[in-house]
């Protein structure tokens, strides 16, 4: 076994790898960009090396800097984690050339499985069933459009070099193909540096079932059973579980054997995942599953496999990379209970799941029997716009699926995040949904049930009232001297509150902003008691956190950010009633589809912004004419920055 390892990654996976490495007695070296200088993975490691500015393309994606950091620190091995350079064959080669152990498969296996088109051809040759589609080299848009027609709609456009939903678009008819293709190619180029795509038939009622495989350098290969990753949004996994509901022992063995066959076909070594798409319209059947791709790395969802097998997959990676044999055969492995993982993201479900960045004013992650949490952030830290917005993975393990889902839902209820918005209530609703619990789901489940899963839109009145009460107390203290110096008649509403202690019980209407919306709170004060209500609802039991000039109240996982409203300020948000288009998150302007003087229709795409390596289309809010374009293509914009101004149609 080598004695030191550099972790070429960040966030929760870097923390996860460091913990196992330290348990094994290895010296750990972290790397960090300027944005991550004080991140938890940096603090946890024995040594840390700066590798560049915040953007990943200037730091975590620069192989030369990672190799240099390994040499500088005296590392003997490099663990790439997942994402970034983990599936780059050139990086594996560079590690070998530098005399470093690459903790992953051989570069030849990464190349063989790295391009989806070539991988499917290889699998078909090895006797592994593949989804019908076009995997050719001709990338002319007309040829791809013809291929889609030949396959039959609906089809999936998929980046040949990627995963994680990036560069993947479902197209239901020929009219939408060209726009979807252009968007998929842009995403693929931005995320993977390769714009090539393939076209596949969209499988009806698809279930996403993947097999964890492990192989050593001595010819031994096994599977560690399956994971069901069908609960997805925009082709990104949301909740994963093991074992897969409704999968018979016979089909489990067949899929496992097929996955091992796929791994052996490319001379695989280490941890890998073979992903299959299955037609679930008539239940999971031996003749209705097809190879999609192989991820030649550790998966985000590997903890559910660890939970049901009792194995540490990172430890196995270290041991296999050091030349050891697998310590077990297929017959030695068995499934223990059921495990479910939820990905807690900094995103706003009420705003189309847009990434939500900023300071973590409060962070309390769940603990309890059967609960595991993998996280790479801490209270007081930042969720950066430069990287994936994951806050934590919450994993529940129990004897049965129902018990595991109950534990997961309870753990999500106990999760507290203040600052960035999160999907915690959405995840809890998923874990409790009766159809999901009954096993009646596929990859389109979330889209079909989205309205049921989302919380009621707008600020929670009870939470707003709770935050306002704290805000009033804070304002009382700050303005007490000023309030006493004024008469009641000359004072503002805030000043009057400070004078309440000089009079009997009084009530006043107080304007605040809750998540940017003006709200009138009713405040009744009779020293020393304070009662606040919003829309007739009294202040609820909520976690209340002070955040600079705001107060955040978190209730049932949802938060309301409340600020004192300056009654003399101009309401700039409504100066251009309905016609202003703003950036919904920090990002980069990729495209402008309309210019000054152009007529636009409500709902028409007028700009495209990239954030977290995903594209987000901005649409015209009204019918009208473009009066102003405030940005240019390539510009970096902040959350709320003006993009365009649409002048409404006269009359």
Automatic annotation (TrEMBL):
<feature type="domain" description="Lipoyl-binding">
    <location>
        <begin position="567"/>
        <end position="647"/>
    </location>
</feature>
<feature type="domain" description="ATP-grasp">
    <location>
        <begin position="120"/>
        <end position="322"/>
    </location>
</feature>
<dbReference type="InterPro" id="IPR011054">
    <property type="entry name" value="Rudment_hybrid_motif"/>
</dbReference>
<keyword id="KW-0067">ATP-binding</keyword>
<dbReference type="InterPro" id="IPR016185">
    <property type="entry name" value="PreATP-grasp_dom_sf"/>
</dbReference>
<keyword id="KW-0436">Ligase</keyword>
<dbReference type="InterPro" id="IPR001882">
    <property type="entry name" value="Biotin_BS"/>
</dbReference>
<dbReference type="GO" id="GO:0005524">
    <property type="term" value="F:ATP binding"/>
</dbReference>
<dbReference type="Pfam" id="PF02785">
    <property type="entry name" value="Biotin_carb_C"/>
</dbReference>
<dbReference type="Pfam" id="PF00289">
    <property type="entry name" value="Biotin_carb_N"/>
</dbReference>
<protein>
    <submittedName>
        <fullName>Acetyl/propionyl/methylcrotonyl-CoA carboxylase subunit alpha</fullName>
    </submittedName>
</protein>
<dbReference type="GO" id="GO:0046872">
    <property type="term" value="F:metal ion binding"/>
</dbReference>
<keyword id="KW-0092">Biotin</keyword>
<dbReference type="InterPro" id="IPR011761">
    <property type="entry name" value="ATP-grasp"/>
</dbReference>
<dbReference type="GO" id="GO:0016874">
    <property type="term" value="F:ligase activity"/>
</dbReference>
<dbReference type="InterPro" id="IPR050856">
    <property type="entry name" value="Biotin_carboxylase_complex"/>
</dbReference>
<dbReference type="InterPro" id="IPR005481">
    <property type="entry name" value="BC-like_N"/>
</dbReference>
<dbReference type="Pfam" id="PF00364">
    <property type="entry name" value="Biotin_lipoyl"/>
</dbReference>
<dbReference type="InterPro" id="IPR000089">
    <property type="entry name" value="Biotin_lipoyl"/>
</dbReference>
<dbReference type="InterPro" id="IPR005482">
    <property type="entry name" value="Biotin_COase_C"/>
</dbReference>
<dbReference type="InterPro" id="IPR011764">
    <property type="entry name" value="Biotin_carboxylation_dom"/>
</dbReference>
<keyword id="KW-0547">Nucleotide-binding</keyword>
<dbReference type="InterPro" id="IPR011053">
    <property type="entry name" value="Single_hybrid_motif"/>
</dbReference>
<dbReference type="InterPro" id="IPR013815">
    <property type="entry name" value="ATP_grasp_subdomain_1"/>
</dbReference>
<dbReference type="Pfam" id="PF02786">
    <property type="entry name" value="CPSase_L_D2"/>
</dbReference>
<dbReference type="InterPro" id="IPR005479">
    <property type="entry name" value="CPAse_ATP-bd"/>
</dbReference>
<feature type="domain" description="Biotin carboxylation">
    <location>
        <begin position="1"/>
        <end position="451"/>
    </location>
</feature>
